[in-house]
Specification:
Elements (H helix, E strand, L loop, with lengths): L1 H6 L2 H17 L3 H12 L7 H15 L6 H17 L5 H14 L4 H5 L8 H17 L6 H16 L2 H17 L3 H18 L2 H18 L2 H15 L5 H17 L3 H15 L6 H14 L3 H18 L2 H17 L3 H15 L7 H14 L1 H13 L2 H10 L6
Length: 409
């Protein structure tokens, strides 16, 4: 492939990229894969439409991974879709591209975008569509258990196929959903099963992310030894890869754990490691939201904390993901608590739950803030304030708290 790139042979380079993309993705070679696929699609020359469409679809897979740049991914989706329309071959992955294109045109109509794929003759496409339906419901903060049902059905379908990538994907999403509902042990078990199947194909970058999340869940359960063991295994895998997103996930997980443990200096150091690994990608909205959220908690000066939480809210609003907005609202609730605005803290916690669609029982700060606010207000006043928060716009509540010291009571 490098020879084809050097010779400017666009058809050969892109054909090889389309053929090898899943191998790079699943075998622990994502950095090399992204480099070669990007080089291939950037090579000028005549290329068959189906080959070009498949290569672009694989670029979407790489570019949207982890905390990827969604705006860049959207450009690749448009290109993949354009060539998919011209392709005469029926390629399963391109059906997903069509759904993603429709979703970009009308984000709120995601069900209409993915539902046609639920009747696809390809069982892998059907399972993946169901998985994305569940994930989109979560990202948009839908209430109820429809998202859980989609994920569970997708997992059953992937297991019937024996398709390890899909199994691990579905179990990872289910683990997070279960953790949010408060079943930390169940979430850890789902992650353990996801790690087992994805290790069989060699996707070590995914193992890093899963072990990091496991470490956090073990910490929340009070199991320091299991937490340390999960982090140690994540580090062992990190020593074998160069994919920046996976390495940054490890640093961010270490930063969060250090903050939870009261080690502010270590938290800042790990945050610096993550930022350095991501380079310019650290300026993406979803990364900025997480970064400023953490710095807001760490800041001793209330003015500095306010500035960070304001930046986190702006970045999360720009990203538009309900779980991310819900996360940063807990940070604003912490600011309200530090200002003695206990009713406002209760309102913000309720607003966070409203945005997500349910209360996050895996967030240690949310639990801490709720205990403190209930102790200060009593159950009746806390419940009344929470009811007000559930009925208010989250942006108004956050704006009132961030406006000036002592406001938003």
């Amino acid at each position: 492939m490098r020879g084809a790139l050097a010779a400017g042979e666009a058809q050969s380079a892109m054909r090889l990229a389309a053929a090898a993309g899943w191998y790079w993705w699943l075998s622990g070679h994502r950095t090399e894969g992204m480099e070669l696929i990007t080089a291939a699609v950037g090579t000028p020359g005549e290329v068959a439409d189906d080959v070009r469409a498949t290569a672009y679809a694989l670029v979407v897979l790489f570019a949207s991974a982890g905390r990827g740049d969604e705006h860049q991914a959207a450009e690749w989706i448009h290109e993949a879709y354009r060539f998919a329309l011209r392709s005469r071959r029926r390629i399963p992955l391109l059906g997903l591209v069509t759904a993603l294109e429709r979703m970009l045109e009308a984000p709120d109509a995601f069900e209409a975008a993915f539902e046609p794929l639920l009747d696809s003759e390809d069982p892998w496409v059907r399972a993946l569509a169901r998985l994305h339906l569940g994930k989109m419901r979560i990202m948009l903060g839908h209430e109820g258990r429809e998202a859980d049902a989609c994920l569970e059905t997708a997992l059953t379908e992937f297991r019937a196929l024996g398709e390890r990538f899909g199994i691990s994907f579905a179990q990872t999403e289910l683990a997070e959903r279960i953790a949010v509902r408060g079943d930390l042990a169940g979430a850890c078990e789902h992650l353990e099963q996801a790690i087992a199947v994805v290790t069989e194909v060699g996707a070590v970058e995914d193992v890093i992310r899963m072990r990091c999340r496991q470490a956090q869940l073990y910490w929340l359960r009070g199991d320091a030894d299991a937490c340390a063991a999960a982090l140690a295994e994540a580090q062992r895998y990190a020593d074998r890869v160069t994919w920046p997103d996976a390495l940054a996930e490890l640093a961010l997980a270490r930063a969060e754990l250090a903050r939870w443990g009261g080690e502010a200096q270590e938290a800042r150091r790990q945050l610096g490691v993550a930022t350095a690994l991501l380079g310019g990608e650290a300026l993406r909205g979803n990364v900025l939201a997480v970064t400023h959220d953490l710095l807001g908690y760490l800041a001793e000066d209330l003015g500095e904390a306010r500035a960070h939480h304001e930046a986190a809210c702006a970045a999360a609003a720009g990203a538009g993901h309900a779980p991310l907005i819900a996360q940063v609202l807990v940070g604003v609730a912490d600011l309200a608590l530090r200002q003695g605005a206990y009713e406002q803290a209760a309102r913000l916690l309720a607003a966070s739950a409203g945005v997500r669609g349910l209360w996050d029982r895996s967030h240690p700060d949310a639990a801490r803030i709720e205990r403190a606010a209930r102790h200060a207000l009593g159950d009746a006043r806390f419940t009344a304030a929470a009811r007000e928060g559930a009925d208010a716009l989250w942006s108004d509540l956050a704006g009132a708290t961030l406006a000036a010291p002592g406001t938003g009571r």
